Amino acid sequence: MANSGINLLQTKSDFNPLFALVKRYIVWVSMGMIGIVLVSGIGISLAFFYLQSQRETFLVTEKRLSTEIESQSVKEALLTGVASRLTAIEKILAEQHSYVPYIDTTLKIIKTYTLSSFALGENHSMSIGITVSTLEEAVDVFTTVMSMEHMHMIHSPILESFSMKESGIFDIKISYIVIL
To answer: Helices in 96-174 by DSSP H: which ranges?
Structure first.
């Protein structure tokens, strides 16, 4: 008769040989997967620690640079103020012109005589007052003015006034335009 019970003393079983082959590869695959997980975990941990140290380095650098920027803010404010003043000075210098030609022509006209008034007008015009003690000196002033006009140093000279004081001193007022 056929035995229908389970024999617990029998060491061999009726397993399929394909199942045994799969079982052997499952062990190798699971060992490989555990190795991959471990290596990946170590790699990720190393990357995390590296990135954490980089983050700390960047935070320290940020604090240092922030402190430097704050300490430089006073200098920046001063430099900004100077820069704005420089633009204003550049505008002034661009519009400003030299008074040397005006003074030079006046000195050539008066020579050693007394200058009683000096006024700058618009469009390079000048008005000067000269005090001379004799009529010959007055003629010398007029001659100088005319020669300067012929040399194109001035143009449009006008005798505004010519008067003699009771003391015998002559006052001459002349206006002219300086050629720059």
So the answer is: 100-110, 135-150
Q: How many Å separate Cα 162 from the centre of its chain?
A: 57
Q: At what angle do helices 100-110 and 135-150 cross, to 10 degrees?
A: 140
Contact (CB, 8 A) for 153 and 179: yes
Instruction: Quote the strand ranges of the chain, DSSP E.
Output: 114-120, 125-132, 154-164, 170-178
**Superfamily grouping for domain 100-178:** H-NOX domain (3.90.1520.10)
Please, what sign has the CA dihedral across residues 26, 29, 33, 35? positive
pLDDT digits over 107-155, tens only? 999 988 999 999 998 888 999 999 999 999 999 999 999 999 999 999 9
Q: Record the tokens describing residue 96, joined without a space.
A: 């400003």
Q: Which among 168, 108, 167 is positioned nearest to 140, based on CA atoms? A: 108
In the numeric block, which tokens belong to residue 179? 């050629």
Cα angle at 45 between 41 and 49, to 5 degrees? 175
The predicted-structure confidence for 18-38, as pLDDT tens digits, reads as follows: 776 777 788 888 889 999 999
Q: Are 171 and 116 in contact (CB under 8 A)?
A: yes
CB neighbourhood size of 141 (10 A)? 21
Name every residue whose Cβ is closer than 8 Å to that of residue 159 and which is 6 or more positions away in sequence: 142, 172, 173, 174
Is the distance from CB of 131 to CB of 113 less than 8 angstroms? Answer: yes
